[in-house]
Structures are given as structure tokens and as C-alpha cells.
UniProtKB/TrEMBL annotation, chain B:
GO cellular component, one term: plasma membrane
Domain of life of the native organism: Bacteria
Residue intervals passing through the bilayer: none
GO molecular function: ATP binding; ATP hydrolysis activity
GO terms (BP aspect): peptide transport; transmembrane transport
Keyword Glycoprotein: no
PROSITE patterns: ABC_TRANSPORTER_1, ABC_TRANSPORTER_2
Membrane protein topology class: Peripheral membrane protein
Gene source species: Mesorhizobium hawassense
Record keywords: ATP-binding, Cell membrane, Membrane, Nucleotide-binding, Transport
Annotated ABC transporter domain residues: 9-257, 349-605
InterPro entries the UniProt entry points to: AAA+_ATPase (IPR003593), ABC_Ni/Peptide_Import (IPR050388), ABC_transporter-like_ATP-bd (IPR003439), ABC_transporter-like_CS (IPR017871), Oligopep_ABC_C (IPR013563), P-loop_NTPase (IPR027417)
UniProt name for this protein: ABC transporter ATP-binding protein
Length: 291, 679
């Protein structure tokens, strides 16, 4: 069965598998396909924001503010200062697609860089990393953000730092747990007895086998981060106004919810669509990955 | 139809759903079992024998479907039973014992409670009666102190004890048929022999019919009156046990019998007989006889024609599924003898008084007594030497410290005290990370578990290539590729395997890759930790032959770690017997095994032939902590007051032979022979 496998087939097999089996898992699952489609659509919107947005998202128009309800000129209506909701949501996608990937990747790099050595070496490194993450996790995240951002001011960089600090301990715990079980595998022992460095063993022997649970966690945390940045915006700790930011839009207009529902509901729907899509993708990866 | 039969299975076909298709995994399976008959079902993994067992109890997983045939148990058609009917059947007329005894017991309930419920669920009786029945059943399965056992929790039992409890639980409902699915796999050899003997006796005593499923022909031969050999979902031969062993009629049966290492064959010819190839996967069976491609009697035009052969009677009760059943008398393949191995004679590893002790764990205990904190020695003052070019086997059961010794040698563990000198350097307390590279590359290891020996994230080519690069330093990509190809060729794998991932390989193939990786840097010493124990019988033989070939070719020193006495006898030059971390006996194969001197060696040999040792208490003792002979609790010739107080002396039988025992060698030679030598 195998001997007949030509070189071309073999390369194909390799190529397919280098996709980490993610594509195969997603293809089998229609809800995951929907999730990916929504995420991709928002990505395209974010990239093309200057082209597709009908108005300047920060342009104040008191004439429009007189009648903010959705109309033919403003499809989703305007806010209390007459800024076009649709344009602000489109530009807000840019904000989301900048803040979320940056902060999630930062959290994962820091978390893995701390958690893997903790799990692999054990001993004092483990104690140090584990206790540090315990302390971080025992601290209410919201208070952490408030302290951080009120003292350093709201900016993209500070939001990324805040999210990294909040999520890295969780990621490091996961990375540590996976490493703990994988380091007992015989192939790790084989690498040790042929004299590989610890860095090589962690990066090449262990990390590729940890990617399954880590990818699932990444998708879930991406979803949470959308909510989190929304919350930060809601608390006034998001990007400074007048930047278009989904969470910020909710807070700016929240007090008018009973009269002008559209100002709040549409940004909320945008947030939900991204969060749900992330969860759908995470679910399919969890179900699809067998190893 | 025979009215007296307890179980009748007619032309059973079971399929598994896969990707919307139905793949038949059991085909044309017919079986008739008389009351109180013992029947053995033998086959390698993937032959469908467990599937049959599950079907008998209506226990198939959601993917399994019975597509044809009938199962009649005690007059009831099992296929027609509804949920309630099946519940009544299981644990009523038929009970099952699984492979993992510990997971079959509920960890939060006492043994007694679980046994009582098993009784109450099926019999209308009072609690007190159920308790009495449970205790007498515990007695029947030969557990020491049944009344005390009654109040224990599952985690307080050893594996062998837990399996006895599970058997007792199954028998409490007084089933007419007891199905045992590999009940002793995972137990130590001596415990296995005891459990097997227990099952054989219980069957006889209680009149319960037994269906015993196993991959181990020797064990089945000990218990069963009749044996059915399964291959690729079909019974290929069915015969009374004696006839099957004396004259197998199907080439596959003959092959299976030939794969077993024969202790008598030890000597010049160390290779084992093999069956080439692998069991075909469901849906990939060849046309005609599914054993055809692996059969030495294969005749094109007859064996590969549809429909395949049917199970037909030859010579009395024997039935064979073979087109050429009347023409051939299958013989096992004669193995090719191995070339002379060079021996340097000087020692490459010298172990002196090596001790590895694990600090006791300070577990939280909720009240009650806690045993004094005492370190447990996994290796207790072991001294031995490994000579260049030889095959030294280390034999012992789990907990004997044989793997710990290997791990210290390779640098995955460090010793507590003592010395281990390899190539002139003491490495007892040096981990692999701190060892010089040239020393590391001289000793390599072959691992036990084919599932974890290769990194699933990398291709075979990358795995072997990395090992090559690591050992030989900078090389061009073409050089590495050439080297990888030659290594693959040496382990009889095609070069295309470079592009495959481990999960695309069978267990035997993965083990071959592991061997190729170990040999990448021409090491001088190879440590093989149970390299074949996770493989099927027919694959085992091929891997052992491969190891012997590579060893002979490269003149590598071999440290072979195993619990399989027959195999060790077959391939080693010298043997070290470990028990509870102590070296019990050491010498050449003949000096150690024929005849055995140390009482523990004698017990190992008797267990290897499937017999429980007579004499000595039938329990697994705890490894002693204080100065004593570790084996004294189980020893049938122990001297109370001496063996449990003092560490036994090491007695030299000859230059190469030593025994650690309080008895004189001359006394040990006179010890009652526990077993006959025949298998």
C-alpha cells in the first residue's frame, strides 16, 4: 500500500499535513466554515475601511444628529454627534483587528516562553513561574487594567501590554501542563540521549505536538479579547476618542439606549459576530484534532 | 443444531461504520460451546476476537453493527433482545472480565460493597447472605484473608489481586458463560501464571463455560480444551488443544507456534521463525484466502480465487479454512542462522554497588496510620559488568529495577550512590545533559512503546536524519539522505518511508525506525528496554531477528531488558536476574536457567511455561525495606529469622556465575524441581 506511493504523492501528503490538519477539520464542519467566513469578511472590511466606509468615521454632522435614526443616507443611523454608525463600525473593525491579534500573540509568546521551560525543567524555574502566574491570576483582571491604563494612559501599546499580562499566566499554565506530559515521551528521551540542547527539544520535539490544544486556546482567547477590549472601551480605558472602537461606541451611546437603540445594538452585534466566530473555529479544532 | 450447546453462534458477520461505509471486521464466524466447556480464541491484534466478545454481550460500540448471522445463548437469541433483556443477560447468564482490572472496579466503594451489589443485582437474597457469598467467593479466588479484603478499597490491591476480585465479582452472579478478554495482559509473569491457573481450576470446579480470549497461545493451551485461531476476522483453524499444538493444520497456526521462542533451541541458532508481512486492515484484505500473501504454501490461481476457503473438517474435530488443507502439512519456516559475533571480552560498562533510591512521598493522609517515611530502593547495591560485543539480558518483573538501571546507564536518571563506569568514565551521577557528546553517542537506546518512540510531528526522514546529523556533525543534505536511506534499508524499510509520518506506520514498522535511529551513529552499546513487548507475536519475532542481525553485523554490545524469560533464554549470552532492586543471579544462559539455582529464577521459569509455582505463598509480597533478601516473603525455601533479617551473601558458582542467596549453591541445586522443562 505504501511502497507504491510516489515522490509527488508523498510531497502532497506532507503539504497537506503541514496544514496541521486544520483545514481538514474545518472542512468537515459547516459551522466552523461559517465562523471562518465571518472572520475573513471582517478582515477584508478592516483592510478596505477607507474605501468601503461611506463617511469619515470622526466627522461630526449636527444636521444628521437632528434625526439619528437609520435612513437611506445613513444605513445604520448616526450617533448623537451625527457620526455615521456604519462607518464607525467599519473603522472599528480595523481597531479590533489590530488590538486583538497583537495582544493575543504577545500573550502566547510570553506564556509559552515561560510555561514550557517551567514544565520541562521543573525545579525552581517551575516554582517561580507557577507562583508568579498564581499571583497574576489571583488579581482581578479588571483592576489590573484600570491601574495600568490609568497610570500609563490609554494607547494601543498599553492595551496590548494589559491583555498580555492578563492572559500570559493562563497560557503559561496550559503550556506547562502539556510540556509536563510530553516530556515523558520516549522521543524526548531519545533526543536527550543523543545530546540535543534543551532549547531544541522544547522547540522542535515538544512544541509541534502541543500546537493542537494551544491553537484551540488561541482561538478562544481571541474571542475573549474582543470582549475584553470592548469592556475596556466601555470603561473609557479603550483607545482615546474620537477613534472608532466598538466598545467605545457602546459606552458613548449607552445612555440613549431606550430612545436610540441602533447606536448601541449595531456595535454590540459586531462584537458578538467576531466572538461567536472565534468560538466556532475553536470548537471545530477541538473536535477535529485527534492527537 | 445441537440442543445441548450453551452458546451457538452461526455465520456471524460484524461490521464497523467508517466514512459512511460498512467494513466487515468479523466474517463467517461460527462457534458452538457446550456447558462447562473451555474454549480459547487466539489471534493477533486486529483479528476481531474482542469484537466477537462484545457482540456476545450485545455490547458493540455505536459504530459496530451485526450485519448477519445469529447468536443463541442458553436458548435466547441475543440479537433480538431489547435493552432490559440485555441487562438481564449480562451478569446473569454471561459475565465478562476485561483486560484492565483496576478500571473495572469503582475506586470509591469497598471491595465488599461492590461484590455484594453484584450478588444482589442478580439473586434475590438478603444482604447478609450476599456478604457470605462474597466472602466465600473471595476465598474461592484464593485471596489471602478474604474478610479483611472485604473492607478494602480498590487502590489498596495489587493488579493481580484486583483481577481476582473482578473474576470473583463476575462469578458471583453464577453465570453459565464467563468471557475473559486478555485477563492477564499487564500482569507480571508469575502473577499471570497464578491467575491463569485459578481460572482453569474455577472453570473445572464451578462448571462454568469459559471463553478465553488471548494473543498468547501458551496461556490458552494451559486453560482450554478447544482452541480457535482467528485471522483477519475469520476462524482459520479450530481444534482440540492437544492436536492444535502437536500438528497445526493451518499455515498461520503453524507460524504462530513457530514464532514463540523455544528455550530448547537456545544455542547456535538464535533467530526466530517469522511470518512475513502484516495482518491486513479491514477493507484491504486480498481476494480469496486473506492469509495468502503471507503464506509459504500460497498457490496462485487457487488460493487467490473467490470465494475464499471455507472452514471444513479434516481429521475428526479439527476444522481448517484452507484450500490446500488435504495437501499440506504446514511446517514452521526454518530460520536462517546468524553469523558469528565478535567478542572483545573487555568490559564496557562496569557497575559497582549502584543504589538508586526514591525519596518517600509525603502524601496528605486524612487520619489513620501513616507508614514511616522510608526511602524505597529501586536499585539496591547492584554490581555487574557488561562485556564488549555480548548480549546481556536483564530479567525481572515490574518493580525489579531493571528499567531504572538502564535509565542510569543512558543518563535519564542519576544514581544515589555507587559507580557506573562506561568507557573509563563514571557516569552514575551524570545526566545526559552534562555528559560529553562522544560518550553519549557511544550508548543508544531502543524504547519499549512504539507509539511514543517517534515524534508524531516529524517525518521518518526528519527523525532519522536528525539523529545522523547529531552524531556525525555537519554534513551535506545529500550525504544525510544517503545515510538515512542506508539505515532504512538496514531495517528492511523502503526508502519512500522517509516521507511518511509515524501514524502512517504499523507498530512493528515504528519499532524498526526506532532501531534505525539508535544505530545512526554506530554506537558501541545499545540498550533495548522491552523492545518487542508491545508488539504482536509474529512481528516480535521479526524485530528480534532484526536486532540480532544488526548486533551481529556491527558487533554492538547489547543490554537487553525484558520480562520475557523464554525470549531472554533464546537470545542472550549472559543473564542478570533482578528482583526488588537486588541482583539475584548472574551468569551465562545455561548457568542461570538450566537448571535454575536461585528460587526466584526457578519461579520465573515456571511462570514462563504458564505454570504457577507450587509451594510458597500465593501472594504478591511488598518489596521489603530493611536489610533482607527482597524475595524472602515469596520464597519457598526461605529460612525464617535469617532471610528476613540479613542481606544474603553473593555466592560464586563459577567465574561467570553468581547467586545471591543464604543457601549454599549445593543446596539450591537440590531444591525441588518446580516444573518440567517442556512447554
Amino acid at each position: 500500500m505504501s511502497a507504491s506511493l510516489g515522490a509527488a504523492d508523498a510531497t502532497m501528503v506532507e503539504l497537506r499535513q503541514n496544514f496541521f490538519g486544520i483545514w481538514a477539520a474545518i472542512k468537515r464542519n459547516p459551522s466552523a466554515t461559517a465562523g471562518i467566513a465571518v472572520l475573513l469578511a471582517w478582515g477584508i472590511v478592516a483592510i478596505l475601511a477607507p474605501v468601503v466606509a461611506p463617511y469619515d468615521p470622526t466627522a461630526i454632522d449636527f444636521l444628521a444628529a437632528a434625526d439619528p435614526m437609520p435612513s437611506s443616507s445613513h444605513w445604520l443611523g448616526t450617533d448623537s454627534t451625527g457620526r455615521d454608525i456604519l462607518s464607525r463600525i467599519i473603522w472599528g473593525a480595523r481597531t479590533t483587528y489590530t488590538v486583538v491579534p497583537l495582544s493575543v500573540f504577545a500573550a502566547f509568546i510570553v506564556g509559552i516562553a515561560l510555561g514550557m521551560p517551567a514544565g520541562y525543567f521543573g525545579g525552581w524555574i517551575d516554582t517561580l513561574v507557577s507562583r508568579a502566574s498564581d499571583i497574576m491570576l489571583s488579581f482581578p483582571a479588571l483592576i489590573l487594567y484600570i491601574i495600568l491604563i490609568t497610570s500609563f494612559g490609554p494607547s494601543l501599546c498599553n492595551i496590548v501590554i494589559a491583555v498580555t499580562l492578563a492572559y500570559a499566566p493562563g497560557v503559561s499554565r496550559l503550556a506547562r501542563a502539556i510540556t509536563l506530559s510530553l516530556r515523558e515521551q520516549d522521543y524526548v528521551a531519545a533526543a536527550q540521549v543523543r545530546g540535543e540542547t534543551s532549547l531544541y527539544i522544547m522547540a522542535v520535539e515538544i512544541l509541534p505536538n502541543a500546537r493542537g490544544p494551544l491553537t484551540v486556546d488561541l482561538c478562544l482567547r481571541a474571542g475573549y479579547t474582543v470582549i475584553l477590549t470592548g469592556t475596556l472601551g466601555f470603561l473609557g480605558l479603550g483607545l482615546p476618542p474620537p477613534t472608532a472602537d466598538w466598545g467605545g461606541m457602546v459606552v458613548e451611546n449607552g445612555h440613549l439606549l431606550s430612545i436610540y437603540w441602533h447606536m448601541t445594538v449595531f456595535p454590540c452585534l459586531a462584537i458578538s459576530s467576531v466572538v461567536i466566530s472565534c468560538n466556532l473555529v475553536a470548537d471545530s479544532l477541538r473536535g477535529g484534532r485527534t492527537r | 443444531m445441537n440442543d445441548t450447546s450453551l452458546l451457538t453462534v452461526e455465520k456471524l458477520e460484524i461490521s464497523y461504520r467508517k466514512d459512511g461505509l460498512l467494513l466487515p471486521v468479523v466474517k463467517d464466524f461460527s462457534l458452538r460451546l457446550a456447558p462447562s466447556e473451555t474454549y480459547g480464541l487466539v489471534g493477533e491484534s486486529g483479528c476481531g476476537k474482542s469484537t466477537v466478545a462484545y457482540a456476545l454481550l450485545g455490547y458493540l460500540s455505536e459504530h459496530g453493527v451485526i450485519t448477519d448471522g445469529s447468536i443463541t445463548l442458553n436458548g435466547t437469541d441475543v440479537r433480538k433482545l431489547d435493552h432490559a433483556g440485555l441487562r438481564k443477560l449480562r451478569g446473569g447468564d454471561v459475565a465478562m472480565v476485561y483486560q484492565e482490572p483496576v478500571s473495572a472496579l469503582n475506586p470509591v466503594l469497598t471491595i465488599g460493597r461492590q461484590l455484594r451489589e453484584a450478588r444482589l443485582a442478580k439473586r434475590d437474597c438478603s444482604k447478609a447472605d450476599a456478604n457470605d457469598a462474597s466472602i466465600s467467593m473471595l476465598k474461592a479466588v484464593q485471596l489471602p484473608d478474604p474478610a479483611a479484603m472485604f473492607d478494602r478499597y480498590p487502590h489498596e490491591l495489587s493488579g493481580g489481586q484486583a483481577q481476582r476480585v473482578v473474576i470473583a465479582m463476575a462469578l458471583l452472579a453464577e453465570p453459565k458463560l464467563l468471557v475473559l478478554d486478555e485477563p492477564t495482559t499487564g500482569l507480571d509473569a508469575t502473577v499471570e501464571a497464578e491467575v491463569v491457573e485459578l481460572i482453569a481450576n474455577l472453570g473445572r470446579k464451578l462448571g462454568t463455560a469459559i471463553l478465553y480470549i488471548s494473543h498468547n497461545l501458551t496461556l490458552v493451551g494451559r486453560i482450554c480444551e478447544r482452541v480457535g485461531v482467528m485471522y483477519s476476522g475469520r476462524i482459520v483453524e479450530e481444534a482440540p488443544t492437544r492436536q492444535l499444538f502437536q500438528q497445526p493444520r493451518h499455515p498461520y497456526t503453524a507460524g504462530l507456534l513457530g514464532c514463540r521462542p523455544y528455550s530448547a533451541a537456545a544455542g547456535k541458532n538464535r533467530r526466530l521463525a517469522t511470518i512475513p508481512g502484516n495482518v491486513p486492515l479491514p477493507g484491504q484484505e486480498p481476494a480469496g484466502c486473506s492469509f495468502g500473501p503471507r503464506c509459504q504454501y500460497f498457490e496462485p490461481g487457487r488460493c487467490d480465487q473467490l470465494p475464499g476457503p471455507i472452514l471444513e473438517a479434516v481429521a475428526g474435530p479439527t476444522r481448517v479454512r484452507c484450500v490446500r488443507r488435504d495437501e499440506i502439512v504446514p511446517q514452521t519456516l526454518v530460520p536462517v542462522s546468524v553469523a558469528h559475533r565478535p567478542k572483545s571480552g573487555s568490559s564496557v560498562i562496569e557497575v559497582e554497588a549502584l543504589v538508586k533510591s526514591y525519596a518517600p512521598r509525603h502524601a496528605l493522609r486524612f487520619g489513620g496510620k501513616s507508614p514511616g517515611p522510608e526511602a524505597r530502593n529501586a536499585n539496591d547495591k547492584i554490581s555487574l559488568s557488561v562485556k564488549g560485543g555480548e548480549i546481556l539480558s536483564i530479567v525481572g518483573e515490574s518493580g525489579s529495577g531493571k528499567s531504572t538501571l538502564a535509565k542510569i546507564a543512558i543518563g535519564l536518571e542519576e544514581a544515589t550512590s555507587g559507580r557506573m563506569i562506561t568507557f573509563g568514565q563514571d557516569v552514575a551521577q551524570v545526566r545526559a545533559r552534562r555528559r560529553p557528546l562522544h560518550l553519549l553517542h557511544k550508548i543508544q537506546m531502543i524504547f519499549q512503546n512504539p507509539d511514543s518512540t517517534l515524534n508524531p510531528a516529524h517525518t521518518i526522514g526528519a527523525i532519522i536524519g536528525r539523529a545522523v546529523r547529531c552524531v556525525n556533525g555537519k554534513q551535506s543534505a545529500a550525504d544525510i539522505k544517503r545515510h538515512v536511506d542506508s539505515l532504512l534499508a538496514a531495517v528492511a524499510l523502503p526508502p519512500e518511508f522517509r516521507h511518511k509520518y509515524p501514524h502512517e506506520l504499523s507498530g512493528g514498522q515504528r519499532q524498526r525506525v526506532g532501531i534505525a535511529r539508535a544505530f545512526a551513529g554506530h554506537p558501541e552499546v545499545i540498550i533495548a528496554d522491552e523492545p518487542v513487548s508491545a508488539l504482536d507475536v509474529s512481528i516480535q519475532a521479526a524485530i528480534v531477528n532484526l536486532l540480532l542481525d544488526m548486533q551481529a553485523h556491527a558487533g554492538t554490545t547489547f543490554l537487553f531488558i525484558s520480562h520475557d524469560v523464554a525470549l531472554v533464554r533464546h537470545l542472550s549470552d549472559r543473564v542478570a536476574v533482578l528482583y526488588g532492586g537486588q541482583l539475584m543471579e548472574m551468569g551465562t544462559v545455561d548457568e542461570v536457567f538450566s537448571p535454575p539455582f536461585h528460587p526466584y529464577t526457578a519461579r520465573l521459569i515456571s511462570a514462563a511455561s504458564g505454570r504457577a509455582a507450587s509451594g510458597g505463598p500465593k501472594s504478591e509480597g511488598k518489596v521489603g525495606q530493611h536489610a533482607s533478601c527482597r524475595f524472602f516473603e515469596q520464597c519457598h525455601v526461605r529460612i525464617d529469622g535469617l532471610c528476613d533479617r540479613e542481606t544474603p551473601p553473593r555466592r560464586e558458582g563459577s567465574e561467570s556465575h553468581s547467586v545471591t542467596c543464604h543457601h549454599e549453591l549445593s543446596e539450591l541445586a537440590m531444591q525441588p524441581i518446580l516444573v518440567s522443562e517442556t512447554m
